[in-house]
Amino acid sequence: MLQPIPKIIAKGKYLGVKREVEVFLEDGLPIIEIDGEYDETIQNKFNQLLKEAPAIGGTYYPPENSLLAAYSVLESVFFDDGSIPTIEAIGDIGKIPTYDLEGIVY
Question: Where does the source fall among the domains of life (predicted)?
């Protein structure tokens, strides 16, 4: 069975308008499309945000050009302030390292 191509689909308000965003890797770099279209200005802004992707769970800083970093940016800083995005990861976008300690809740 074929594995789905890893990507992230997020919905939220961007510049005051409800948008659907898709992020996928191309040549090892996250590419962002909004409402099915590529925009170089938005891509450049997204690239800047990826360089300082917020920590996931407050403690894990994902690799700069990974889908986990893209997830963190979409979840925290890409959409308008006050917009709570819905985010769906399709396929294997990476894994946050954890310790398998019994009784510890993350």
Answer: Bacteria
